Amino acid sequence: MAATPPFPDKDKAQVPSAATGTSPAKRAQILEGAARIFAEHGYEGASMSCIARDAGVSKGTLYNYFDSKAVLFCAFIEQCTREKLPLMFRRIDEGATMADSLEHVARALIELITSPLSLMLNRVIVSEAATFPELAKTFWANGPQQATSILAAWLTRAPQSELLDVPDPTFAAEQFYALCQTHIAGRARMQLPVDTSPAYIDFVARSAVRVFLNTYQRSGPRQPPLAYVPDA
Amino acid sequence: MAATPPFPDKDKAQVPSAATGTSPAKRAQILEGAARIFAEHGYEGASMSCIARDAGVSKGTLYNYFDSKAVLFCAFIEQCTREKLPLMFRRIDEGATMADSLEHVARALIELITSPLSLMLNRVIVSEAATFPELAKTFWANGPQQATSILAAWLTRAPQSELLDVPDPTFAAEQFYALCQTHIAGRARMQLPVDTSPAYIDFVARSAVRVFLNTYQRSGPRQPPLAYVPDA
Amino acid sequence: MAATPPFPDKDKAQVPSAATGTSPAKRAQILEGAARIFAEHGYEGASMSCIARDAGVSKGTLYNYFDSKAVLFCAFIEQCTREKLPLMFRRIDEGATMADSLEHVARALIELITSPLSLMLNRVIVSEAATFPELAKTFWANGPQQATSILAAWLTRAPQSELLDVPDPTFAAEQFYALCQTHIAGRARMQLPVDTSPAYIDFVARSAVRVFLNTYQRSGPRQPPLAYVPDA
Amino acid sequence: MAATPPFPDKDKAQVPSAATGTSPAKRAQILEGAARIFAEHGYEGASMSCIARDAGVSKGTLYNYFDSKAVLFCAFIEQCTREKLPLMFRRIDEGATMADSLEHVARALIELITSPLSLMLNRVIVSEAATFPELAKTFWANGPQQATSILAAWLTRAPQSELLDVPDPTFAAEQFYALCQTHIAGRARMQLPVDTSPAYIDFVARSAVRVFLNTYQRSGPRQPPLAYVPDA
DNA sequence: TATGAATGAGGATTCATTCAT
DNA sequence: GATGAATGAATCCTCATTCAT
């Protein structure tokens, strides 16, 4: 029974080949349409006709700019990932104290993690991770890794480096990043209802900072854990 | 242009199906095939023909046991989620000290999070969360929520409750759960290469415990952060 | 058994279709193929593959021109009904006498009723009347109703109105129409063998006229009934 | 392109063959289920599973009693046609006058023609006339032909034969039968709305009688045409 | 004999891709 | 370069029929 061809070879699009289209404006127009459709329906659920219609071009033009659905999908993910993700966490807003600065970071991370763009990219990349492994790498490098790198670098810079005891800044940054995901991130990724009120985000952020500093701050009294009071 | 295009519903109210298949063995056989295909290709990418072939039954038999692809998918997810996930984190192995016990928990959580079953469920549920929101709920209840509930309950039980200051056990458990995901979980979800050596997992586990206890332990000296030494 | 079987509607609100095909020639070509297959096998018995093969186009093209089998079926019936049926009985050919004129009408009606087109439409419309009630309306309006309307109008126009006593012209026309169906129409509808020789049609037509005028003619001697002599 | 087998050979069921079932009760039970399903969905639209379920037997039993769907369909039509149709017009109820008697006949014919059974048989037989030509013959013989035969015989029997001048009784009966279909029968066959109030049926019946007798009655004055007054 | 699970060809429909205009 | 009609393989699902129990 070597009969029916089992699955379409999604990733045979290795040859960058033809793609004769040249107008950057039209290319961008197509990518915008692709973004809307892929974001809503995922890779398998999106159809090239839909994308063409949404982008306002013909299917022929689509194929002039992108050799295949797979290539278009990758281009879309790469573009979002490279151009939009990094903008969401570029630098650390310094606060009055180190704790203040870290709270800014924590809130920024939570916002990054729960942003529609990030969640959508997470969703489509996770679901196509086996088919397009490159996309996961790019996403990781431009999203989580960039954020933790910035934080790790900050941890080792004066003046905060004076106050901290951080033997492995990368790992410490990743712990902080993990703490910022408490309760919210996993649920958001599965589109389960989540409390994203500013008060709750603030609580999560301050809790993350407190737990982090209780370990990584060089001296000073241990801070007791926080508790969430919804109305506060 | 007289008529609206008439829709040939005709007699949908037949309820011809209701899955007449009854043999539990064959049902299990089908679910096994479905597991392989859904796990590899996701919901949209899997075809009923493929599943039938893989399960060693005809397409007709598939539909004798499951009314539609959606129903089969849900049955598969529900079964994995209800029957296999809870087995992966049932109880807390007590150690000599509270830190030992928490290290056992941390290792168990990391293993749960990085298990192929859990990752696969995560992947397909995330990618179909919009279509099948119930599945996310079930997964959450049987996986992460169960784990954190068990941990939260343990935190409030003597003797460890004597030694801890945990105003919000659920949140504390979720912070611990988040800490256990440091570095590993996000990468694993995207099928990126990940260091899952026992040594590294041990390091992550002990780091989580240390950070956790530095905040939630009622008294005692602050423990300095750990550093990973790969060769150790 | 948690969840209700989720229905994967997902995104039916796409309106991906709307029949993009535009070439009238190809549309006509498809309708011709559809005519042959629907006429022979009826709605349920016809398959889109067959129609595509017969029309000499691919299945995809079929769906570029018609959104579904139901739409194609309706288009086919509507076209036949609107464009071809009315041509078969447009006006009344006046004869030397009123009886002559009515005989022309009768023969035209019998030909209409027994024409392959009319019989085919009758057959498929009757068998799908419950599913596509609009088609029956359209057929009736363009076929029988048009014919009886024309006749009813003629009955009330001078000079024949002078000679006739017709209190209810519509009903009178329908009686005449019914008389023209004597012996032939019912059998033809069931594809039973039928004597459609000109001589027999002539006999039926003249019998209808005679019976009709014996009641509706204002004065003059009653005409005795006719008898059919096959050899004549 | 002698490629795909175009249509299933519906009528290959010539060999009466196996059909090992023997219990007449079970056979009747199956036919009752078949009646309901075929009546509602037609031949193509009915499924053997549906029929089995509706009849309360297994599919295996179905095939023990009837070799195929085609055979079952024919058996169902034959049974209805032979056993139920003739009961609907068995004899002529004599009235005080010949006109009275004919009015009884006319009303009985109209009721026969518009009865659900007759319309259903008409529908399914017409739609499958090409596939099962035998059924049309049987239906005709047991329905319209029987009715017109009885009437033709009555026309030639004393005392009415004395009063009538009927050179071709069969044809005369068929004209009467045709007149009884005025306005109602064609519409009913297409499931178009039809006035079946007793008053209207009465009007149609009396009109048919009047028109008939104005030609076929041996003597007496011409009766003027009737007009329908709904409220009367 | 009665059952109903199993079969697999065939149904309507979709969609990535090509190519003549 | 842009278009969109045409293609046909692949999709989910149905159903007449068979056959082991």
From TrEMBL, chains A, B, C, D:
InterPro entries with a match to the protein in the record: DNA-bd_HTH_TetR-type_CS, Homeodomain-like_sf, HTH-type_TetR-like_transc_reg, HTH_TetR, Tet_transcr_reg_TetR-rel_C_sf, TetR_C_Proteobacteria
Keywords: DNA-binding
Region (Disordered), start-end ranges: 1-24
Residue ranges of DNA binding: 47-66
Source organism, top-level taxon: Bacteria
Entry-linked PROSITE patterns: HTH_TETR_1, HTH_TETR_2
Keyword Cytoplasm attached: no
PANTHER family, A to Z: HTH-TYPE TRANSCRIPTIONAL DUAL REGULATOR CECR, HTH-TYPE TRANSCRIPTIONAL REGULATOR RUTR
Name this polypeptide is given: TetR/AcrR family transcriptional regulator
